[in-house]
Amino acid sequence: MAFVDWYPNYSVHNALMDRHHQELFQAINQLREGVLEGNAEDALDRSFVFLDDYVEKHLKVEEDLLKEIGYPGFSEHKEQHDQLREQIEIYRKLFQSGKKLEAANLMAFLLKTWLVSHILTIDRQYGRYLVDHGLETH
What we know:
By secondary structure, the chain is an all-alpha fold. It has a single domain (12-132), classed as Four Helix Bundle (Hemerythrin (Met), subunit A), CATH 1.20.120. It contains four helices and no strands. α1 (15-37) packs antiparallel against α2 (41-68) and α2 runs antiparallel to α3. The mean pLDDT is 92.
């Protein structure tokens, strides 16, 4: 059973952003599985670093999209992203200090909770904006 599942109603009406979100869900599940299965440290390292990098890549691409379409809620949206970046930085430092299992577990729970909530509220707002302005992609 997956730690976090993607559902079609999570769509933000942009194929690239939906794909990113789905890939983030997969990476969160892999990190969580690694924690539960007691994966070797190098596997946990790879999973944590990938997820850390991918989150930043996704946030940047999403912010660029919102600027490009002139989304009026951009500032508030970016502020939420920046808060997530700050939290991830705390977990990155914890991970680098040697508390890898604890940091990986916290990161998985943070991203599961944050991502689902963020998609269902904040991201879906720009999804409606895309639809209303004929900018959606599938």
